[in-house]
Design goal:
487 residues; alpha/beta; 14 helices; 23 strands; 38% helix; 21% strand; binds NADPH dihydro-nicotinamide-adenine-dinucleotide phosphate
Length: 487
């Protein structure tokens, strides 16, 4: 059976490349190649730039409320097609359908809805200067690039496109080669909603296409989601033309569970923050610090719930709540990390190997894995694994917990669990992380800005704040009288 081959989406339509180069896309839950995608060649890239410039000129001319109306139509279409789009995400990523129908499309639609609401409210200000005055205009940047990771492909495309387009920019988006279809569907939806051709183009390919976007002098900004090491390369390339950058990078986030915490809630958080999306979430709280007094109680409850409630298997089966790793290579990487943990002396409490579910025997599954007796020098505690691997550690005092939590180059997220309101805020204020949760974990509503401290990122996504990262201020001084001049 011949496979469907998708093309790049440029200037409001699918366009054929000249080189005929393409890549295969594999469903990680079955190991089958499910479709193919053409790689953007020079001709497609040139067209993407010229059409994005043209799209920008048309789009930026519209008033905020006109852009808003069009974007709101895209929101309606996304929500109407929730189940169909969720299935695409499942086939590309291997995550459970039960998650994708509830989160992936709706959280993307929420972002477009939120920024569409803000579009008409983007404004400058003015100030009197005696008889003269100045005013500011908050203007779009121009053609922006978005480069996405593979764990939430459609959501990431929406989170980048929403503020960019609301502010009047155009965007060229490159999804991960592992998960290229969601962004193409978003491009189709934007066109159907009335977004002018060229305002949202999708280029396909591997890191080389991302590198080209990062370098291209005609692009004003690059918003990147991915690994720290790739982020550094993108930022280096972007420096060549002094582009604006937003970097949403990796993490190794701590959860601190104090002795007075609601244990059941803290266990829920640890499980969500390590096993949701089979552990492939950037904010995951993979370093779990437990107060000595509740260590045993917490571990008992955690192991019981992990063994009894996690269902690994075919992501399309409604009972499944834990899916496949994105690829064979990633499955192997995660298993290598686990083996290193064992070799370094951590105690394996559960998991630790691949899983072969009856209903998905060829998928790339890794069992939910929990290590005890971990310490800060172990690679499983230091390095981002991006898989279902939780590390448990003990502490006895608040100061020690904060010091251990901050002992990392990452700074994406953190969680604090306690019933003591003063302690909760006191600890959070000392944590070096851009996203902190108190008695909660992982929730990321579009209203709340997200992004990393230290090596976990630059800039923010979501929240009103993000409009600043997609606009630039023009100051206009207005002279109301003749200039005084010594010449
Ligand atoms: P990568 O850094 O490997 O890839 C991210 C994107 O960059 C992909 O589209 C990739 O293309 C592309 N790319 C690769 N090389 C280059 C390059 N030299 N220049 C420009 N672009 C390039 O990350 P993953 O896709 O493996 O995603 C997992 C990572 O993403 C984890 O570290 C995770 O923490 C992070 N992440 C962060 C989030 C946040 O909001 N902070 C959210 C989600 C994930 P291709 O894949 O086709 O090679």
């Amino acid at each position: 059976m011949s496979l469907v081959r998708y093309q790049n989406f440029v200037d409001g339509q699918y366009v054929k490349n000249q080189t005929n180069a393409f890549f295969d896309v594999t469903n990680p839950a079955t190991g089958n190649i499910v479709y193919q995608v053409e790689i953007a060649d020079d001709k497609v890239k040139e067209l993407a730039i010229s059409s994005a410039k043209k799209g920008f000129n048309a789009w930026a001319q519209l008033s905020g409320i006109e852009r808003s109306r069009i974007l709101m139509k895209a929101v309606t279409l996304l929500r109407e097609r929730n189940d169909e789009l969720a299935k695409i995400e499942v086939e590309d990523t291997g995550k459970p359908l039960s998650e994708a129908v509830a989160v992936d499309v709706t959280s993307g639609a929420d972002a477009i809805e939120f920024f569409a609401g803000i579009a008409p409210a983007i404004e400058g200000n003015q100030q009197s200067l005696g008889n003269d005055f100045y005013y500011t205009r908050r203007e779009p940047l121009g053609v922006c690039a978005g480069i996405g990771a593979w764990n939430y492909p459609l959501q990431i495309a929406c989170w980048k496109a929403a503020p960019a387009l609301a502010a009047g920019n155009s965007m060229i988006f490159k999804p991960s080669e592992e998960t290229p279809l969601g962004a193409l569907k978003l491009a189709e939806i934007f066109v159907e909603a009335g977004v002018p051709a060229g305002v949202f183009n999708v280029l396909q390919g591997d890191g080389a296409v991302g590198a080209w976007l990062s370098e291209c002098p005609e692009i004003a900004k690059v918003s990147f989601t991915g690994e720290v090491s790739t982020g550094k390369k993108v930022m280096t390339s972007a420096a060549g033309s002094l582009k604006e950058v937003t970097m949403e990078l990796g993490g190794k986030s701590p959860m601190i569970i104090f002795e007075d915490a609601d244990i059941n809630n803290a266990v829920s958080a640890a499980m969500l923050g390590n096993f949701y999306t089979q552990g492939e979430v950037c904010t995951n709280g993979t370093r779990v610090y437990l107060h000595d007094a509740i260590y045993d109680e917490f571990v008992d409850a955690l192991l019981t719930r992990t063994k009894e409630n996690i269902v690994v298997g075919d992501p399309l089966d409604q009972r499944t709540n834990f899916g496949a790793m994105i690829s064979k290579a990633h499955q192997e990487k995660v298993l290598d990390c686990i083996n290193k943990g064992v070799a370094e002396g951590a105690t394996l409490l559960c998991g630790g190997s691949n899983v072969i579910p009856e209903n998905a025997p060829n998928g790339y599954f890794v069992a939910p894995t929990i290590f005890a007796d971990c310490h800060e020098n172990m690679s499983i505690v230091r390095d981002e694994i991006f898989g279902p691997v939780m590390c448990l550690m003990r502490f006895s005092g608040e100061k020690e917990a904060v010091q251990k939590a901050n002992a990392t180059d990452f700074g994406l997220a953190a969680g604090v669990f306690t019933r003591d309101i003063n302690r909760a805020h006191r600890v959070v204020h000392q944590l070096e992380a851009g996203i902190c949760w108190i008695n909660s974990y992982g929730l990321s509503p579009v209203e709340m800005p997200v992004g990393g401290y230290k090596q976990s990122g630059v800039g923010r996504e979501n929240g009103v704040e993000t409009i600043k990262h997609y606009t630039q201020i023009k100051s206009v001084y207005v002279g109301m009288q003749a200039l005084e001049c010594p010449f």
